Amino acid sequence: MTLLQSLESRLAAALAATLGEPAVAAITAAADLRFGDYQSNAAMVLAKQRKTNPRALAQEIIDHLELDGLATADIAGPGFINFRILPAAYAAHATTLLRDERLGVPDIGTGKTVIVDFSAPNVAKPMHVGHIRSTIIGDSLCRIARFLGFQVIADNHIGDWGTQFGMILHGWKTLLDAAALEADPIPELLRIYRDVNAATKADPAVLETCKNELVKLQAGDPENLVIWQQCIEVSKRGLLKIYDVLDVKFDHWLGESYYNDRLAGLVEEFLTKGIARESNGAICIFSDGSQKPDDDPFMVHREDGWTDNPAIIRKADGGFLYATTDLATIQFRIDEWKADQIWYVVGVPQQLHFRQLFEAAARWGKTGDFRHVAFGSILGEDRKLMKTRSGENVQLTDVLTESVERAAKIIAEKNPDIQGDEAAEIAKIVGIGAVKFAELSQNRLTDYVFAWDRMLALQGDTAPYLQYSTVRIRSIFRKLDAPFDASACDITLNEEAEIHLARLHARFGELLPLIIEDFRPNLLANYLLELARAFHSFFEACPVLKSEDSIRSSRLALCELTARILTTGLGLLGIKCPERM
Ligand code: ARG
After folding, report:
1. pLDDT for the residue numbered 393
2. Is residue 127 pLDDT above 80, yes or no?
3. Ligand 1: which of 165, 239, 334, 346 to mutate, most ligand atoms within 8 Å of CB?
4. What would the pLDDT profile of 288-339 be if each residue is shown by its tens digit?
5. CA-based torsion, 356, 360, 363, 369: positive or negative
6. DSSP structure class, residue 387
């Protein structure tokens, strides 16, 4: 049980005793430690309902509180109840964490299946830095949800069936450099896509040819199907290389094309059930009038007032759309995978698509907890959308390569003893970790500025700083004559710096469930920075190796617990820690 849960159950008992009936005992971590460790506004909420004096009610609740050995409580301001955890309680809790594999993290997910839909690049188009956000955030959410006990299915819903294939097919037949494709498929596919795209602009006849290639593919032309298939295979190979560098894994790669056979039937079903209707030859989902226009994703406000904003699921020419596929995907995930929740990690521009999708699914009777985990853009240091010098989107692989190269230089300067394969491996861990952490330490909804120096700094709010902290802790243990067995020791806390460290240890298990409430891995990232800083203060204030007996082993245990939480926490962000750096 976390300390927060212990407090909550005691507060619940006190509320029941005071009021003669159960009431919600909500407690949060205090924002300012001067007022205590935790705070509850229960007395204020209840006093308002009962029209009594909140401070008097708070006092009554405190009189009924049995906090023996755990905390003290007092009243503040208009009727807050503030709790201060006793150092002995922090010590006892830290001692239990030492013996707990899960580091105090509750299991809140057992029995629940969540599909995480992330990364999902489009075949034959490059993964750009925008996809980095989906890939890194999505992977971290998978790791956190698994750690919390959820059954997680990571699904890469790649865009493998789009209009881009008209151009790709034409380019493949007329421009393909087989050797280049073999060597590095993604840039070659991109090249032919770009060249054909340019040609279509210069010559309408080329555009017509591309359209015909697409129609043939959609009609099942064997030659085009084979090329399409090959194209997907080589793209997947290229993508796997990038995912390998990023250490990101998927359980499935069910791309858009997987759902092709289901789309016609789906549209028919929507028509018979009256969820969709015909409009100018297209089949569309309109507002059903059940919501206020402000909340209705099928309405939009234009100059002349509210008008329809339907989702098209079949075009007048018979073609199906992104939304049609996503509806079929929801059905599949619920029926085949028994999904309770689906988290879509996709940029802000697709917000309307997901609002319409979730609403349409609900009308169709497909229920579940569906969330659009949206994120903003990545900006260059000039605060404009990140582009290369020639004005193109920066590609993900280039970002990763550059980060690893920069990390290698820094390590070579700091620690020239490290060489060869080891140096290369550490540069990879540090360079990739820096990119991931820069991403995950931001609020996902804000646009973030990509600044190399800032994200690679050894002293800063960075992955290298955290990785370096774990290396420092390891080096303490290397100086011991005999291996240290933390499971046999008891933590005692005397100094303020020790108490603060144990306070943060206790927070780890309270924080993780909060992160998936609104998908904010940045809470974890910032917590880890706070923990590392608390560790460095502790290490300066409290001698470890030079202290004696039980104090020494207690402090070593605090070091070990810190290292375990740091490495576990970084691991949940998808970041590894080197042995040295
Ligand atoms: N391929 C899409 C894109 O790059 C993202 C797909 C997201 N997932 C989904 N189920 N719609 O924009």
Report:
1. 67
2. no
3. 346
4. 999 999 999 999 999 989 999 999 999 998 999 999 999 999 999 999 999 9
5. negative
6. B
Nearest atom, ligand 1, residue 322 CA: 11
Ligand 1 centroid–CA 439 distance in Å is 19
Going by C-beta distance under 8 Å and a sequence separation of 6 or more, which residues neighbour residue 542?
495, 497, 498, 555
DSSP code, position 259: G
What is residue 293's predicted lDDT score, i.e. its pLDDT?
94
Residue 503: name the closest of 100, 106, 87, 107 by CA: 87
Distances (CA, A) of 376 to 233, 350, 438: 30, 11, 14
Nearest alpha carbon to residue 414 among 467, 473, 450: 467
Q: Is the dihedral of CA 97, 100, 101, 102 positive or negative?
A: negative
**Model pLDDT, residue 213:** 95
Within 13 Å, how many C-alpha atoms sit on residue 581's CB side? Answer: 29
C-alpha 41/C-alpha 44 separation (Å) is 5
CA distance 413 to 284: 62
The pLDDT score that the predictor gives to residue 388 is 63
Query: What is the residue with the minimal CA distance to atom 4 of ligand 1?
Result: 121
Distance of alpha carbon 511 from alpha carbon 480, whole angstroms: 33
* Residue in this structure with the two tokens 């004696």, named with its chain if needed: 548
Report pLDDT digits (tens) over 151-196: 999 999 999 998 889 999 999 999 999 999 988 888 899 899 989 9
Q: Which fold has domain 396-572?
A: Isoleucyl-tRNA Synthetase; Domain 1 (1.10.730)
**Ligand 1 centroid distance, CA of 392 (Å):** 21
Judged against a pLDDT cut of 80, whether residue 390 lies above it is answered with no
pLDDT band at 391 (very low <50, low <70, confident <90, very high): low
DSSP per-residue string spanning 199-211: HHHH-HHHHHHHH
Give the separation between CA 148 and CA 72, rounded to whole angstroms. Answer: 30
CB 472 within 8 A of CB 458: no
Count Cβ atoms below 10 Å from residue 205 Cβ, excluding itself: 10
The mean pLDDT value for 8-25 works out to 95
Prediction pTM value: 0.94
Of the candidates 270, 258, 381, the one whose C-alpha atom is nearest the C-alpha of residue 325 is: 258
Query: What pLDDT is recorded for position 450?
Result: 80
| Sequence ranges of the domains in the chain | 3-85, 164-246, 396-572
Q: Which two tokens stand for residue 121?
A: 């690049």
CATH for 3-85? 3.30.1360.70
Rounded distance, CA 89 to CA 494, Å?
Answer: 12
Assign 3-state DSSP to the chain and report helix, strand, coil percentages, each to 5: 55, 10, 30
Query: Do 144 and 104 touch, CB atoms closer than 8 A?
Result: no
Instruction: Answer whether 455's CB lies under 8 Å from 435's CB.
Output: yes
Q: What distance in angstroms lies between residue 27's CA and the mean position of ligand 1's atoms?
A: 38
Residue with tokens 């210069």: 202
Measuring from each residue's beta carbon to the nearest atom of ligand 1, which residues come in under 6 Å?
Answer: 117, 120-122, 157, 159, 326, 329, 344, 346
Residue 465 has a pLDDT of: 96
